[in-house]
Amino acid sequence: MQFYDYFRSSAAYRCRIALNLKGLEPERTFVNLRTGEVRSDWYTKVNPQQLVPTLVDSDATLTQSLAIIEYLDEIHPEPAFMPKDPLGKARVRGISQTIACDIHPLNNLRILNYLTGELGQSEEAKNQWYVHWVNLGFTALEAQLAASPDTGTYCHGDTVTMADICLVPQVFNARRFNTDMTPYPTIVRIDEALAQLPAVADAAPGKQPDAV
User: Looking at the domain assignment, is residue 194 inside a domain?
Assistant: First the structure.
């Protein structure tokens, strides 16, 4: 198993948490997003989207973090990342997609670079953009988590699910951009509980070999 990674990629961060929780240690190749290595000829052959992460397992090449996480859950069922009941699965997928499909894409590196590059926006404007979309997403997510009896120690009950795997990197990045987390006490509480787990803590960007 080969994992293409970048320490500060939120999507790769999700997969590192998932791999750690499953006790898997793939061979890792680090692809530098900041220097444009992700657009190199060699990596484009691996992943034509020019994004990380990519997971290669035998002859299969997998892209997109949620697909990779669910694949890992299928081939290594324990510990499970999804509840057993259909409604629980739908809720976990919904929370995961709120983060991975609604919040994160508007704020990933290539979008932010386009704002300050081609569109000529200032660093201040870029940061305002980031915080705006995080706040919009977190406001809805906080309300959803706080109101639901299905929320427990973590996003769904008292076991770690794909929703939690998605939450941790988004909170990390929100703090990196100085987002005020005061309005989101449920999100903060869940993130603090997750941070106590070695599999989660060891996946943090600052602990990766390519961290700079």
Answer: yes
End-to-end CA distance of the chain: 25
Candidates 51, 53, 52, 1; CA nearest to 27 is 1
Question: 212: which residues sit within 8 A by CB, 6+ positions away?
Answer: 7
Are 27 and 70 members of one domain? Answer: yes
What's the rounded Cα separation, in Å, for the pair 160 and 174? 21
CA-to-CA dists, residue 7 to 35, 76, 210, angstroms: 13, 24, 6
Question: d(Cα 84, Cα 176) in Å, to the nearest integer?
Answer: 35
For residue 31, give the CATH number of its domain: 3.40.30.10
- pLDDT (tens digit per residue) in 16-65: 999 999 999 999 999 999 999 999 999 999 999 999 999 999 999 999 99
Show which of 79, 107, 134 is a domain's final residue.
79
Confidence of residue 109 (pLDDT cuts 50, 70, 90): confident
- Using DSSP's 3-state secondary structure scheme, residue 185 falls into helix
pTM score, whole prediction: 0.95
